[in-house]
Specification:
The structure is a homodimer. Chain A is about 35% helix and about 20% strand. By secondary structure, chain A is of the alpha/beta class. Chain A is globular and about 65 Å long.
Chain lengths: ~400, ~400
């Protein structure tokens, strides 16, 4: 849906809306013949399914398996195809770094280069946060511009960091320098070949990136592990239309992983940072910020991690654990409580997948359906049917009474 | 769907198609736990649900609550976002007024102005049709042009009329002069502010409107009640692609309220005017015009009115009343009989809503589904699933054998 159109209908009121994203929620049947979600004992989720209206969303479109970026971008109402956000921007947005429009961001991976010039370790022995930060500071102390273009460095986590070129007309259409395999030589950064004449802004950006890699190699030469860096996920920062302004509400994000904070920050939500790690920490934060916000995005990570591990039992336990915390959410008495995932992560596939994602909206204004329990099979009888992820936000606004009538 | 594409597939045949729009049909569960539609005793509708294929349509898109204009525009196959029709054009189209492309139409509300220049009554004491018509004639006798631009006046109903500027390059992007509250002074008409430089065509139109309001004030000064008028819902008449030409059929509309006649007339349907008021009147008209038409749009108003009143029982009775007339429609033996609403109007909300609208298509060519009764919960098992309102017309054409195969 066109955002200007949707925004033109948005009105303010006193309602509170909570969007819970259980990452990688949907699955496939496991050894018991049920999905983790169906197999889990979830009396609280079941009660919500019974009360609310249920169905599925397709994160991008039928058959498309999304990364976490597009999956969240869609749930936040933006077109995930039109608004593809590169890893460089996404990871950097998960840090306190303050972007300016036009910044060219790239993810940096510290690596160990062998004497023969091949990559010996793509993660520099998984150096600690402390060591990663130290190396970033060392680099930043020696390199602040490349060939007259400002360069900013930001530590992300462990061996991961980000490099941002600022103030030049550059393109992010660049190949990674990471050869993706140990024992190979790092690649040169180069414009992505697309059959067109090379774009001068991409040529210039590749030049700067390669100069930076070379200079960094000199600065890092005496490091035992992080003696090299690779660049990947180049992208230009292009601000998203602001989620708070579009929908006239005070929106906040509670998440424990940087990437989800990042995508929320890119949308213009207030990202709450209090070192939250556990689901209990996150719930406590939601309670703490409740009065001052109208929309809260709550991200639960572990459902996805267990799916990626292929840990059917573990995913079930994470879901049961979250279920036990639901009464705390319900006690806040949100006007609209939406429970869904960003994409499916079936244990059987050990990866994200394209399968439609369970979706439940609980609100006094929801039309009842026949769903009696929270699960993939049950939701097939749901009243929402199958919508696109970008339809979820308009539905939340509608159920909260936050959209005025369109036309006479 | 692209109309040129759809139209390119349309073929003529002898089939008869009836589209029944029970205005505001869908609802939410009432005190009995059922919607009005589920609670009503509807043996005839149930028989049709059993025979036909059922499901839902979204009038504009998930979460969007439409006015009656966009809701019907979508059912007639036009994109309701691209084709937003302002109240001035919509109301005028419900009268016999003949538009010309480029006309700028505005709704007029006669009002009572107090001695202190504030609005004492926004509806001029709800003057009668007769009095309204008299005042319009009086105005028209004295004002036929404003600053060299032709002005046409048309009575609509009671205190409502329309003013149409013709022959000048004008824009309809204007604010209303109605302050929406008694005790306030009327507003000046002005271009809608959108952060752009004012559009000269809107500036000119605002100038003409304000001059007209001032002149009308003089003409109406001696009226006891309708001594003033307010302008609202400005819009330029931009003809819709003709429904009869697009689909190669003779289409007629049977409705009792001006607005629904208006939207059908805008689409190019023949609007039957024989003073019909009751559902029985309307059914008799359908029977009367049966032989000469291929497509008949039949509009039932009272389902919506009862929904707007929050009258759960009343809405049920209207549905039961209409159900009792169904045998007359069935007796005509239409090839395709479609029963739906334009939008939902849940009694619980006392307003239009975004909830998907029940949809049933009865035709020999319909694929059977499991629906045994006509209602929201039952239709969740329907074979149509959830479509957009703009998909309804292609489905009707298809079930009537009026679309040829696309491509080899």
């Amino acid at each position: 849906m066109d955002l200007d159109f949707l925004s033109s209908l948005a009105i303010q009121n006193d309602s509170k809306v909570v969007l819970v994203v259980m990452d990688g929620l949907g699955g496939l049947a496991g050894p018991t013949g049920k999905t983790s979600l169906e197999g889990a004992r979830t009396p609280n989720l079941d009660a919500l399914a019974k009360k609310g209206v249920c169905g599925f969303h397709d994160p991008v479109g039928p058959g498309i398996t999304p990364g976490s970026g597009p999956a969240h971008i869609g749930l936040f109402g933006y077109d995930p195809i039109e608004r593809l956000i590169g890893r460089g921007v996404l990871d950097t947005a998960g840090t306190p770094f303050e972007f300016m429009p036009g910044d060219l961001a790239s993810r940096l991976n510290f690596a160990t280069l062998a004497a023969d010039g091949t990559i010996a370790d793509r993660r520099a022995g998984r150096i600690s946060d402390e060591e990663g930060l130290r190396v970033v500071k060392k680099l930043a102390g020696r390199i602040s511009e490349i060939d007259g273009v400002e360069l900013l460095l930001q530590h992300v986590k462990e061996y991961r960091a980000a490099a941002i070129f600022r103030g030049a007309k550059l393109s992010g259409k660049l190949c990674d320098s990471d050869p993706q395999q140990v024992g190979k030589k790092p690649l040169s950064v180069a414009p992505i070949e697309d059959g067109q004449a090379p774009d001068p802004e991409a040529v210039r950006a590749a030049e700067l990136a390669n100069m930076f890699i070379e200079q960094a190699r000199g600065v890092l030469a005496d490091e035992p592990r992080a003696n090299f860096l690779m660049m990947r996920g180049f992208d230009i920062y292009d601000p998203l239309p602001n989620f708070c302004k579009l929908y006239k509400w005070r929106a906040a994000a509670v998440a424990s992983y940087p990437m989800y904070k990042g995508v929320a920050r890119l949308a213009g939500m207030k990202v709450i940072e209090e070192g939250q790690q556990s689901m209990e920490d996150e719930l406590a934060l939601v309670e703490k910020i409740w009065a001052e916000h109208d929309f809260i995005f709550l991200h639960i990570k572990k459902t996805d991690s267990k799916g990626e591990d292929g840990d059917y039992q573990g995913k079930m336990e994470v879901i049961e654990h979250f279920d036990s915390l639901i009464p705390r959410l319900v006690a806040l008495n949100p006007d609209v409580l939406c429970l869904t995932g960003d994409h499916s992560t079936p244990c059987a596939l050990k990866s994200h997948s394209w399968h439609p994602v369970p979706l439940c909206i609980v609100a006094a204004t929801a039309r009842r359906d026949a769903c009696q329990s929270f699960g993939e099979m049950s939701f097939l009888a749901g009243g929402l049917g199958r919508v696109n992820s970008t339809d979820v936000l308009p539905l939340l606004l509608a159920h909260a009474g936050r959209l005025r009538k369109y036309g006479a």
